[in-house]
Structures are given as C-alpha cells and as structure tokens.
Amino acid sequence: MANIICSSHKIKDILSNLIIAKNLSKTYPNLTSASNRFKSLVSLLRNHHMINGSTVLNNINLSVQKGESLAIIGKNGAGKSTLLKIISGVVQATTGSVKVNGNIGALLELGSGFHPEYTGRENLKMAAALAGMKDKHLKNNLIKMIEFADIGDYIDQPVKTYSSGMVVRLGFSVVTVTKPDLLITDEVLAVGDTDFQRKCIAWIDNYLKTGGTLLLVSHSIYHVQKLCKHAIWLENGTIKKQGNAFSVSQEYQSFYEKKKGKTVVKGDKDVTNYHVVSVKIVNSKEQEITLIETYDDLVVKIIVFSPDERPPGLTIGIIRKDIPVYGTISDRHKALPKQLSQYEFEFTVTYKNLKLLPADYLLKAHAMDPECLRLMDEVQAPFRVHSTLIDLGVVELDTEWS
User: Fold this and answer.
1) What is the pTM assigned to this prediction?
2) What's the rounded Cα separation, in Å, for the pair 323 and 30?
3) Contact predicate 231/78, CB 8 Å
4) CA-CA distance, 380 to 288, in Å (whole number)?
5) pLDDT band at residue 139, thresholds of 50, 70 and 90?
6) CATH for the 275-386 domain, from 3.40.50.2300, 3.55.50.30, 3.40.640.10, 2.60.40.2550
C-alpha cells in the first residue's frame, strides 16, 4: 500500500509540473574557419557532441509548476534567451531534455511568427488559426485583439511598416485571446510606451490569478518583483542562485553594484526625467538630523522632480550594510505626494515607533514614473540609531515570555 501511495504522489508531482528540464546544455559550433566548419559538420553527421564550440548553457535543471510565475535574470550573454528558446521548442538542446505539459504562448523576438508583407489584421487571423481557434470564435476575438493592440489604422498596413512597439502590441494581443497554459516573454515589457506596459501588467496579473503560468526574462528588477514569485539567476550559462524572486533579484542587484563599486550619493539632475531632488531625515521641528533613538518616529521628506507635472512615484528602503531591512513603494500605499511647485513634489514618509537596533543605516530613495513601472535614479541618506538595548540583530521583535 505504501508503494502505491508513493507512486500516486509521484504521478501527481509530474502532472502539476508544467515544465521539467533536466541537465540542459547548449553548445554552439565554432564556425570561424573552414576547418572548424568541417569538424562541426562531421560531428553533426555522426551525432557526436560538439568538441570545439561556445557553451552558453551548462547542466540546467528546473521545474515550473502550473500557476507559478518564474523570472530568469542575469547579464547579457548569461544564457537567458537561449533557455527560453529551448523550452519553447525554437532551439534544440545539445544535451539534456525538456518537457512542457501544456500549450505555449511565446513572445521572444520582435516580429517572430508574423509575415512582414501581410497586414496586422491578416497576421492576427493567421495567429489565431494556428492557435486552434475556430471560425465561429474568430470574429469576436479578432475585435478583442485589435482593441488590445490599439494601433489605429496601422492594423490594415503591412507589418514591415510597424515600429518595434507596434509589433509587440500585435504579438501580445494574440496572447490575450489564446490564453496559453504557459506564457513565455523575453523583455516584452521593455518595448512600447508606458500606457501599454501598464495594460500588459494588468493583463498578466489577471492571467496569473486565473491559473496561468509565466516565464519571464527581464532586466527590470521592478517587473521581476512585481510579477514573479520565484526567480533564477543565470551566470555564464549556469544557475548561480534560485528561490524567492525578491531575495534573488536583490542579491543579483547588490552583486553587480558592489562589482562596479557603485555608490550614488546624488540624484540625477536631468530635467527631462523624473529624479530625486533631496532626501531629508527630520525631527518634530522639521530640523534635519542623522541620529535617532530606538522607538522614535523616523520622518523622511523626499522631493521628486517631475518633467511633465504629473505626480511621480517613489520607492524607499532601509538597509544595514548589505542587509535589506525594509523596502516599499508609493503605489502599494496609494500615496500621492504634495505638489510644492510646477515640477516638484514632496513625499513625507513616517516610520512609527522605529524598532531598529543600534547601528549605522542607509536610507535609499528611488524616483519612479507616475505609473510606478520604471526606477529612475537613487539617492542615499545615512543615519545612525542609538539606544541602550543590548539585543542582537537588526530589529526588535515583539515577544511574549511565559
């Protein structure tokens, strides 16, 4: 009986996994000379492994369950796009295996799957038909796709005349009606205007809430943390870190900031973009301070410049050395700043009854666009917490002893 129960659990695990990738590796042949091209051809004909070549993925193992949202992050050349192409079936792995238990909607390279000579409308019809949509459903869904793409009269122009943003609008609109089991996107949200990005994020949020599965590649840490619960950090074709999306992305960001020796102490003064003008930690008399006591209120006043007179967004966080203590975003709190002048807005953030233990801390503020989609800059303000507490750690937690 125990064996039967164990087997049923294994079957359940297999069924719940939408993606199972085992020992994936990908090596591209070295074709820089005639002799190398000949050797590669011989290896291919003999079904041998590539000896001389460039390995972009090495022994990747991962599984993605239905309803999961997974981000793949890493620097350019880390192997992210190659991994997505192998999972979506565009590229074959050199070694290893991958199995996908469901239909895929892949938004990889701009224009892939669209015929440049056909109009947007004609391409939408073809895409819907290839996705298995029946004629009786095509008419209503075609209208929905055209409305989502929102490219006006260009819908009846050849796709070869489209901008990159218009092509993305067309591709994403197909996904909204086909609703694949697995949505794979590669930097799609980096292309196009802010309004369309916001519309895509809203659709993805609803897609995930209704059981969809997302595999996202993005250099935007904000999109990774907003849309995904889990993340994989690829480094030189191998998995360097995997786990919670926030933890992995923060460690990734910290790693490269330290590597570059990046210390930002001032806001960007470019008047064409959103930026932090000033960050002040103040007391009850509005006087600027750098030393506070444990259990005091920490009051922060941040002025943000807005080039288009719209209320900007803000991300604010506290760190101790390299340990993130707490970070949040104005959008989460529905916070609107006070307008000081035509282009300047002020946020006032109060941390009530601060329970940080004695140490040196750093407060970080990032200006964001009004839609809270893009981080613009970073300004830091150091402060010190003093008290007579002798507890260890970063923050005091409420405890009850009995």
Assistant:
1) 0.63
2) 43
3) no
4) 15
5) confident
6) 2.60.40.2550
